[in-house]
Structure formats: C-alpha cells, structure tokens
Amino acid sequence: MDLTSILQTIDVGRGLILLGVLFLIIIYLFYPQKKVIFTISIAVVLAILLATVLKELIPVARPCADSLVCPSGNSFPSRHAAMFFALAFALWKQKQVWVFLGSLMIAIFVVFLKVAANQHTVFDILGGIGVALVCVVVAEKVVEFLDKQRHITLILEKFKLK
Q1: pTM of the shown model
Q2: Are the beta carbons of 77 and 9 closer than 8 angstroms?
Q3: Contact at 8 Å (CB) between 23 and 43?
Q4: What gap in Å lies between CA 8 and CA 78, rounded to an integer?
C-alpha cells in the first residue's frame, strides 16, 4: 500500500464527500442540536478514511471485475455503506425519528443499488456497516470529551454558530 493509491482512492470519493457536506448543511439549517453535527461530521470523515485504508489493506476483487463497466479498486469494505450508515447511526439517538429513518432509508437504497449493480457483495456492505458502527462510537466519545472540555461551545461561539 502506497500513499499514491490511497490518495487516488480518496479522490474517487469526492462526490460522496460533497453529498455528505450538502446533507450536513441541510441538517445544520433545520436541526437545533449542533453537537449532533460534530458527531456526524467526525463519524462520516472517519468512516471514509477507515474504509479507504481497509480497501488498500484487504485485497478483495469486485464481483464485477470481469465486466467492462466496473469501478477500479478493491471491494471490501464498501465505502458507500460506511459513509451512509455512519450518517444514519449518528442520528440514531436523536429525538426526531424522521431524520434517522430518512437517512437510514437513503443508506439502504444506496447499498441496494451497489449490490444490484454487482459492484459490491453483501459481505462488502456488512463490512462497511461495521466500519460505520465503529466510527460512530469513536465520534460520540470524541464529541463527549470535547463537550466536557467546553471545546465545542468555544468553537460554536467563535464561528457564531450557537
């Protein structure tokens, strides 16, 4: 695994990152609890990074590898599953169930399309979901620590987001 291949793999995910940022802006505009935005942001970024590194470390060929139309790179774990399920799981404990259910439905739809297009197996998707769970737990712990240290309040006040 070299840095160039990791950076090329991350480059593929730019569209995903843009979609994630747009979703975070929508949540920020309509969602009153700003700590949730920090948790989501950390969880999604960690999920993308961890899934990218694992893709390079675990060489699993895509099921469509023999096809003319097939994304490059390894298959396991699904970065799409990691990112979208990290977003959904980070919203699990929130009071507005519709936000969680909406993001969960989007995540399920995205991974269904990936499996249906033969770009991932169910095993790849489950690996991505596992990555998402780990990243959400880590993100919640980080935000909890920062909140106890009052760093989140200071950040919100500095950027006039509170």
Answers
A1: 0.73
A2: no
A3: no
A4: 16
Q: Label residue 72 left, alpha or beta by phi (over 0 means left) and psi (-120 to 50 means alpha).
A: beta
CB 87 within 8 A of CB 134: no
Question: Cα angle vertex 24, ends 18, 27, to 5°?
Answer: 145
Distance CA 98, CA 81 (A): 20
> Do residues 81 and 107 touch, judged by C-beta distance below 8 A?
yes
Q: CB-hemisphere CA count at 13 Å for 31?
A: 21
Question: 6-48, pLDDT tens digit by residue?
Answer: 444 444 455 556 666 666 666 666 666 667 777 888 898 899 9
**4: its two tokens:** 């160039």
Q: Where are the domains of the chain?
A: 3-158
Token pair, residue 161, equals 């987001």
- Other C-beta atoms closer than 10 Å to the C-beta of 35 total 15
